[in-house]
Amino acid sequence: MDGSSKEEEEDNTFTSIPLTDDIDHSSRILYPRPKSLLPEMMNADMDAVDAENQVELEEKTRLINQVLELQHTLEDLSARVDAVKEENLKLKSENQVLGQYIENLMSASSVFQTTDTKSKRK
């Protein structure tokens, strides 16, 4: 087994794939390949999307907080309205009691009695 038979065994085991550099390009005119901006554009686009998402997320958060604050304010106002209604009913009831008391005092007092003017003249 000499060195050449070993090379033949290796050639049989592996398939040779030509590389692009191995192909003869002498008939083609080669121009410098422009640098691909795609990865940079993708990164810039992703940064823009991330920035848009961040702005959108901040806006949503702000709106949610504003809605929650308005809900709490509405609950507070509703509770205040209920308290004012209760106070109003209580005061109306007290006013009725006081009104009736004043009427009773006036009817019992001679100062507020209606006088007959004909009877006094006689």
TrEMBL record:
Residue numbers spanned by region Disordered: 1-20
Record's GO cellular component terms: cytosol; Golgi membrane; trans-Golgi network
Membrane-protein topology: Peripheral membrane protein
Keywords associated with the record: Coiled coil, Cytoplasm, Golgi apparatus, Membrane
Keyword Metal-binding on entry: no
Principal location: cytoplasm
InterPro entries: SCOC (IPR019357)
Ranges in coiled-coil conformation: 60-94
Location of the protein in the cell: Cytoplasm, Cytosol; Golgi apparatus membrane; Golgi apparatus, trans-Golgi network
Described purpose of this protein according to its UniProt entry: Positive regulator of amino acid starvation-induced autophagy.
Homology family: Belongs to the SCOC family.
Subunit text: Homodimer. Interacts with ARL1, ARL2 and ARL3. Directly interacts with FEZ1 and UVRAG. The interaction with UVRAG is reduced by amino acid starvation, but the complex is stabilized in the presence of FEZ1. Interacts with NRBF2.
Protein name, as recorded: Short coiled-coil protein
Native source organism of the sequence: Vulpes vulpes
